[in-house]
Write a structure and sequence with these properties.
By secondary structure, the protein is of the alpha/beta class. It has 16 helices and 15 strands.
C-alpha cells in the first residue's frame, strides 16, 4: 500500500541532507509511487556500514510503496570514483569486479525487498555502458560536460590538490550521470538517492538529463536528487571503522559479535540518531527511551542494528557473548586471533602484534595508564617479559577483548 508520508519519514529520521529540488521531491513522494535508484560500486566483495546506511533510506521509500532500483556498478567500478581520494583508486580486473558484483547482488536481500510485493529491481550498468562505443559515448554524453565546471566540484578539486587527476577518473561522473538518464528512459526513474559524498555525481545526472532533453527536444520528466548525510558519530568522525578496519556486513569479515560491540560501545550522544536511522520506532518513543536509560537504550540499539544485518539468532548469540564476557571476563565466542612469536617476549612487542593495538607507542601508553589486562592481571611494567601460554585473553581499556592463540 502507498504511504504518502515518505518524505516526512526520511526527514524526521535524519536522512534528508541535500536535495536538488526539495519542494518537488516532497510533493511527488506524497502524491504517488515513483521509481528511484541507489547505486553501489562493487569495488569489494562485500557491503560496509556506509552502504547499509544508504540502503536503509532506500528501504523506507520502498516500504512506502515507491519502486526501488539498486544499481550495481559493474562498469563504473572499473574506473573508480575519485571522491575523497588523495590518489587514484587501485584498478581492479574485470574478473574481480564481476565476482564482486555477484557477491553484492547475493546479499542485497538483507536490506531491500527483492521478492514478494514491490520487489526491488537489481541492475548492472555494465549491461548498457560496455556495449556503447567510446566515440558514441563522447558524442552523446561528453559533449554536455564542461571541464572548467567539473574541476570546481569537490570530488575533482580535492584530487587535483592532493595527488593529481587522471583522464580516466574524469569519465566517472559522465558514466554515473548517464546511468540516471538510462534508468529514466527504461524505467521512468526520476529520483536518485545516495550519500552526500555522491552529491556532485547526482547533480551531474540531473543536469545531463536537462541538457539532453533540450538538445533532442524530447519530453522528459524532472529528474531529481536526494542525499543523506554521511554516517558520522557525534564528534563528526566517520562511523564504521573498527580496530581491524572497516565494519563489513559479512560474518566472514566482521563477526556478529564485533558488529554488536561496535554499536554497544558508541557514544551516548549517538544513540538517539542511530535508533532513528536503523529502527522503525516512533520518534517520541526513541526520545523517551534515551532520556530514561541511555545504557539500556544503547544495548537495544546495538541489538536492532545487528539484527538487521545478521538476523535474530546470530544477534542473540552476540548479545549473550557480550554479557558473559563483561560479567565473567570469559566467553567461548569472543574475537580470536592467532600470532606466532617466542614463548618469552617483551610485553610491548607482544601487544604490537595484536590488531587491537595500533602501534608500540600506543601499547606503552596503555600500560603506563593501567589500560592493559592479560589473563585478569593488570600490566604496569613496560619492560616486563611475558611467559606466553598457548592461549591468553587480552583486555584493552574497559570494553575491548581479544583471545590470543600463540603458535609457540
Amino acid at each position: 500500500m502507498f504511504n504518502k508520508n515518505g518524505f516526512k519519514l526520511l526527514e524526521e529520521r535524519g536522512f534528508v541532507f541535500q536535495t536538488t529540488h526539495r519542494d518537488e521531491i516532497k510533493k511527488i513522494l506524497n502524491e504517488k509511487p515513483i521509481t528511484f535508484y541507489i547505486g553501489i560500486d562493487p569495488t569489494a566483495d562485500d557491503l560496509h556500514i556506509g552502504h547499509f546506511f544508504g540502503l536503509r533510506m532506500a528501504r523506507i521509500l520502498q516500504d512506502c510503496g515507491h519502486k526501488c532500483i539498486v544499481l550495481v556498478g559493474g562498469a563504473t567500478a572499473l574506473i573508480g570514483d575519485p571522491t575523497n581520494k588523495s590518489d587514484m583508486r587501485k584498478m581492479l580486473s574485470k574478473e574481480e569486479v564481476s565476482k564482486n558484483a555477484e557477491e553484492i547482488k547475493s546479499i542485497l536481500n538483507r536490506f531491500v525487498k527483492t521478492t514478494g510485493d514491490n520487489p526491488a529491481i537489481i541492475v548492472d550498468n555494465a549491461d548498457w555502458l560496455k556495449p556503447m562505443g567510446y566515440i558514441d559515448f563522447m558524442r552523446e554524453v561528453g559533449v554536455h560536460f564542461n571541464i572548467n565546471e567539473m574541476l570546481t566540484k569537490d570530488l575533482y578539486k580535492n584530487r587535483l590538490a592532493k595527488g593529481g587527476l587522471t583522464f580516466m577518473e574524469m569519465g566517472y561522473m559522465l558514466m554515473q550521470a548517464f546511468d540516471f538518464v538510462h534508468l529514466n528512459d527504461k524505467y521512468n526513474c526520476i529520483l536518485q538517492i545516495g550519500g552526500s559524498d555522491q552529491w556532485g555525481n547526482i547533480c551531474a545526472g540531473v543536469e545531463l538529463s536537462r541538457k539532453m532533453n533540450f538538445k533532442n527536444g524530447t519530453p522528459r520528466p524532472l529528474m531529481m536528487g536526494l542525499c543523506c548525510p554521511l554516517l558520522t558519530n557525534a564528534d563528526g568522525i566517520k562511523m564504521g571503522k573498527t580496530e581491524k578496519g572497516t565494519l563489513w556486513v559479512s560474518r566472514s569479515k566482521t563477526s556478529a559479535f564485533e558488529f554488536f560491540q561496535h554499536f554497544v560501545n558508541c557514544l551516548d550522544a549517538d544513540v538517539e540518531r542511530l535508533l532513528r536511522f536503523f529502527t522503525d520506532l516512533p520518534i517520541k518513543e526513541i526520545q523517551d527511551m534515551c532520556k530514561d536509560d541511555i545504557v539500556k537504550a544503547k544495548k537495544f540499539m546495538a541489538f536492532k542494528v545487528t539484527e538487521l544485518v545478521h538476523g535474530t539468532d546470530e544477534t542473540t548469540k552476540a548479545q549473550e557473548t557480550s554479557t558473559n564476557l563483561f560479567s565473567s571476563g570469559n566467553a567461548t565466542e569472543m574475537p580470536t586471533e592467532e600470532i606466532s612469536c617466542e614463548q618469552q617476549i617483551n610485553i610491548i612487542d607482544f601487544l604490537s602484534k595484536l590488531s587491537i593495538i595500533k602501534s608500540k607507542s600506543e601499547a606503552r601508553r596503555l600500560i603506563e595508564q593501567g589500560g592493559i589486562i592479560i589473563d585478569n592481571e593488570k600490566k604496569t611494567d613496560v619492560n616486563e617479559i611475558l611467559e606466553l601460554k598457548s592461549e591468553q585473553i587480552v583486555k584493552k581499556g574497559k570494553k575491548t577483548f581479544v583471545k590470543v592463540k600463540n603458535k609457540i
